[in-house]
Design brief:
Elements lengths: L2 H13 L4 E2 L24 H4 L9 E9 L15 E10 L4 H15 L7 E6 L3 H10 L6 E4 L1 H4 E3 L4 E12 L19 E14 L4 E14 H11 L18 H11 L7 H21 L12 H19 L8 H12 L5 H36 L6 E2 L1 H11 L3 H10 L3 E2 L1 H18 L2 H12 L7 E2 L6 E11 L2 E3 L1 E11 L1 E2 L13 E4 L3 E11 L3 E14 L3 E6 L1 H25 L5 E6 L4 E6 L6 H16 L4 E7 H6 L13 E7 L7 E4 L14 E10 L2 E8 H22 L6 H26 L2 H9 L2 E3 L2 E7 L5 H14 L4 E8 L2 E8 L10 H11 L3 E4 L3 E5 L6 H6 L1 H12 L5
Parallel strand pairs: 1-2, 4-5, 10-11, 12-16, 29-30
Antiparallel strand pairs: 2-3, 3-9, 4-7, 6-7, 7-8, 8-9, 13-14, 13-15, 13-20, 15-19, 17-18, 17-20, 18-19, 21-22, 22-27, 23-24, 24-25, 26-27, 28-29, 30-31, 31-33, 32-33
Helix pairs in contact: 3-4, 7-8, 7-10, 8-9, 8-10, 9-11, 10-11, 11-12, 12-14, 16-17, 20-22, 21-22
Length: about 900
């Protein structure tokens, strides 16, 4: 049974027992910025266990791709992985222990056909029911162990579902044990846990455990571990040697490729084997993280992106220093991983090119500083003498200047017997963060949150989806950074109990408008969200005063809101069109939605060519002309995810989310989680015009566009420009390109004619006059002549003509061109060995006119700043030649 068959066998087994097969969640859990990665199969089902939302079915089964950051530095041995797959089946208030234990035993013994004599089980200390169930299925008492909370109690985190668990272990044999009393809880190679059955019954709030609404089952069987056991059981495997995940088909092709690239053999030396395992594991993990179609993670210096960058750089360091791979190799590893895993994960083939475009430049950037960084690190280590610590400042310098993750510095230093002052490193990092926050106004934002939080207000009710005007009391006034009872004319901030003003968020700018009270009027210039739940209106009181307790009318500028809505709906249309034209790897990476324009950042590695932009623009405007409904609705986050609605990590979503979809008929053109304001129908957008496309970083592109009135004004301005061009060229619009082509051809003809005229100015007869003025300097003909020429080209042509007229000698020609002195110097080949060099002569001459120049010994050119000095500059030529002849070559008689 290969691993593709293993996944299918597991899912099919539980489908036959009433389970619904569900797609695993993205490796990055959408809508939860507090959780870096999906670390267990139950993560996406947590709200069901908590009773917070209703599951699509009470019995579920999945294969979940998981990632755990805690194991990165341990990768290299035969056990630890950062990326792994978890086979899982789940019961939400349905079956419990009595069904789960027999099913688990049936699967491992009858489907996987593992020998019963090699299987052990464990149960929680006081879980007599589980203990008896294991006995009932046939596990002998001597192979059932009872363990305490450290071994057999599972927590989903400091807060969340938890419960006692039972585990199934595979016994590789006594020869791999730690002695006669060896058992599964011992840290040795004999036993491998292959299935954990969690009887999830409680919720832990950090201090106490309370019963969940129902008893649940959460099981996890590690695919890599099961594959290892199946390999060990296979015919031909040497039972005196332990198998590991790196021996299985999951890693074997990757290891083979590393052997080819490094010229080394796996299985001969442990140090080399460890290095190969690091490169193989990190290459696989990076390929899956960047290549996740739903939530790609790109290398960066922040959070998830930092993890990807850290693994990439660790793999490159190990590949270069320990395996001797000199050429870039990570992109080739992506090819190998994709080829090995695409049978089960076909999206890897679709995203292969994208991943390679990301990792290639990332590897090159680290390569550019790796050698210098290592030299510095080795120098620092050498200077430590008797001290055994690398300072935090040194570690920070390596991180900041050479891109060395602190973890890599720690690993390299440890190999030399040094520890790193990580506390000092964190101090340096925090100081850098403080500088960044100060530069970005972050410190002010923190103080602002404290200020608004001190007002004692709970939240601002937003009513702007349903109307642009609201009657509401003033509940807070802030002027000059202090809470006030009232404010008179001037800049101020006002908080209302209820507001139709949309606060900036999700890329959409804040609304503008006015607040009118019984004693004054305020112009609102911006609306922002502060202290999470409060909305503040910033602007200027232009009449009278605004006071806390005033009953006011808050009125949004309808034109500004309408323009913003058009651009926001256009942004959703653009996103959907880009995915259809460029590929499903396209994901939003940032946006700006303003009344006058929109900007959309997205993941893509190559420039979007003109034809693709035209296709995107045409698709968007086609949907606008269809006048499709733009529908908004509230649903649960999990339900939205199950429908394939797009979400964006970094955004925080609650249990209830707002879905904005274009065309409610499946398949919908666009469906995204969004809190912004939108048109009612796509026809309201009017027209969309893409104005620019550019790169904003590795694997990131930006599109800028206009819609509605902005697009109309843009088209009008373009038409005016075309009309003016038409007038100047004397051709109607429809013939403008033909006339422009003719004008371009005419201009090229004139350019060639000018060139011919310039050459004629440099004709031989004229140059004969110039050469006739040559002086003899120690047997060498020397010409220094000022000429009246229109261009540098003409000056160079003249020098060529002198060369033909005077085959032996030195010539320096000068001319004032565009108000500046320009010079060309030539020296014949027979004179150069005697000392004079064109470049040296030119430097001296140009310096007199306040400039410089240089070139080859036979020809050089340069210029000066002071045109009045051109004569003086040319006058020094004979003496300069004389000095060079006397100092560097034999003088002629």
């Amino acid at each position: 049974m290969n691993t593709h068959e293993l996944r299918e066998a597991f899912l099919r087994f539980f489908e036959e027992r009433g389970h619904r097969r569900v797609t695993g969640a993205p490796i990055v859990p959408p809508g939860d910025p507090t959780l870096l990665f999906t670390s267990a199969g139950m993560v996406q089902f947590k709200p069901y266990f908590m009773g917070q939302s209703k599951p699509p079915h009470n019995r579920l089964a999945s294969v979940q791709r998981c990632f755990r950051t805690t194991d990165i530095e341990m990768v290299g041995d035969t056990k630890h992985l950062t990326f792994f797959e978890m086979l899982g089946n789940f019961s939400i208030g349905d079956y419990f222990k009595a069904e789960m234990v027999p099913w688990a035993w049936e699967f491992v013994t009858e489907v996987l056909k593992l020998p019963e004599e090699r299987l052990w089980a464990s149960a929680y200390l006081d879980d007599d029911e589980a203990y008896e169930l294991w006995r009932k299925v046939g596990v002998p008492e001597e192979r059932i162990r009872r363990y305490g909370e450290d071994e057999n109690y599972w927590f989903s985190g400091d807060n969340g579902p938890c419960g006692p668990c039972s585990e199934i272990y595979y016994d590789f044999g006594e020869q791999f044990g730690c002695g006669p009393a060896c058992e599964p809880s011992h840290e040795c190679g004999r036993f491998l846990e292959i299935w954990n059955l969690v009887f999830m019954s409680y919720n832990c709030d950090g201090e106490k455990r309370t019963p969940l609404p129902s008893k649940n089952i959460d099981t996890g069987s590690g695919l890599e571990r099961v594959a290892t056991v199946l390999l060990f059981e296979s015919e031909g495997w040497d039972k005196n040697r332990l198998a590991s995940p790196y021996d299985t088909e999951l890693f074997a092709p990757i290891i083979r490729r590393i052997e080819e690239l490094s010229g080394k053999k796996y299985g001969e030396y442990e140090k080399t084997d460890r290095a190969m395992r690091i490169v193989a594991e990190h290459s696989r993990a990076v390929t899956f993280l960047i290549g996740d179609e739903r939530m790609p993670v790109l290398p960066s210096n922040e959070e998830r992106g930092y993890v990807v960058r850290r693994m990439l750089r660790r793999a490159v360091y190990v590949g270069r220093r320990q395996l001797g791979i000199e050429e870039p190799f990570v992109a080739e590893m992506v090819d190998t991983v994709s080829g090995a895993m695409s049978a089960s994960y076909p999206e890897l083939e679709r995203t292969r090119g994208f991943v390679k475009e990301i990792v290639g430049p990332e590897e090159q950037r680290f390569d550019a500083t790796l050698s210098r960084g290592l030299e510095m690190l080795e120098s620092l280590i050498g200077k430590k003498g008797a001290r055994k610590e690398l300072s935090g400042a040194d570690a920070f310098l390596l991180h900041d200047t050479y891109g060395f993750p602190i973890e890599l510095t720690r690993e390299i230093a440890a190999a030399q017997g040094l520890i790193v002052d990580e506390a000092g490193f964190e101090v340096e990092m925090e100081q850098q963060r403080e500088r960044a926050r100060a530069g970005a106004g972050g410190a002010g934002a923190v103080l602002a949150d404290v200020l608004y939080g001190s007002l004692g207000l709970d939240r601002t009710e937003f009513s702007g989806y349903d109307g642009l005007e609201a009657r509401t009391p003033v509940v807070g006034v802030v002027t000059d950074g202090r809470a006030q009872v009232q404010t008179e004319e001037g800049a101020t901030e006002v908080l209302l109990a209820r507001t139709p003003f949309y606060a900036e968020g999700g890329g959409q700018v804040g609304d503008r408008g006015e607040i009118i009270g019984p004693n004054g009027r305020m112009v609102v210039e911006d609306t922002q969200r502060v202290a999470e739940r409060l909305i503040v209106h910033r602007g200027c009181v232009v009449e009278g005063r605004i006071a806390v307790g005033d009953e006011v009318t808050a009125r949004v500028d309808p034109g500004q809101r309408a323009d913003t809505m058009r651009n926001h709906t256009a942004t959703h249309l653009l996103h959907a069109a880009l995915r259809k034209v460029l590929g499903m790897h396209v994901k939003q990476a940032g946006s700006l939605v303003a009344p006058d324009r929109l900007r959309f950042d997205f993941t893509h590695t190559e420039p979007v060519v003109a034809g693709q932009l035209a296709e995107v623009e045409g698709l968007v405007n086609g949907k606008v002309r269809q006048n499709l409904p733009v529908h908004t609705r509230l649903t649960s986050f999990d339900e939205a995810m199950s429908e394939g609605v797009l979400a964006f990590f970094g955004e925080k979503y609650g249990e209830e989310v707002r879905v904005v979809e274009v065309n409610t008929v499946v398949p919908r053109f666009s469906a995204e989680l969004c809190g912004g304001t939108h048109c009612k129908r796509t026809g309201d957008v009017g027209i969309v015009v893409i104005t620019a496309e550019s790169s904003i970083g590795a694997g990131m592109r930006r599109i800028e566009a206009l819609s509605g009135r902005g697009a109309e004004e843009y088209v009008r301005a373009l038409r005016a420009d075309v009309d003016e061009m038409s007038r100047r060229l004397g051709a109607p619009r429809e013939s403008l390109i033909v006339r422009l082509d003719a004008w371009t051809a005419e201009r090229e003809s004139q350019r060639k004619q000018i060139e011919r005229l310039q050459r004629s100015l440099s004709s031989a007869p004229k140059m004969e006059e110039v050469v006739a003025g040559a002086v003899d300097v120690d047997g060498v003909k020397v010409v220094a002549s000022q000429m009246d020429l229109p261009s540098l080209d003409a000056l160079r042509y003249s020098a060529d003509a002198v060369r033909k007229t005077m085959p032996s000698g030195v010539a320096v020609l000068g001319s004032v061109i565009d108000g500046r002195p320009q010079f060309v110097a030539i020296v014949s080949g027979d004179v150069i060995p005697k000392g004079p060099k064109a470049g040296e002569i030119l430097k001296r001459v140009a310096a007199v006119a306040g400039g410089g120049g240089g070139g080859r010994p036979e020809m050089a050119q340069g210029g000066g700043k002071d045109a009045s000095k051109i004569g003086a500059a040319l006058a020094i030529v004979p003496e300069a030649v004389r000095e060079m002849l006397s100092g560097n070559g034999p003088r002629s008689a």
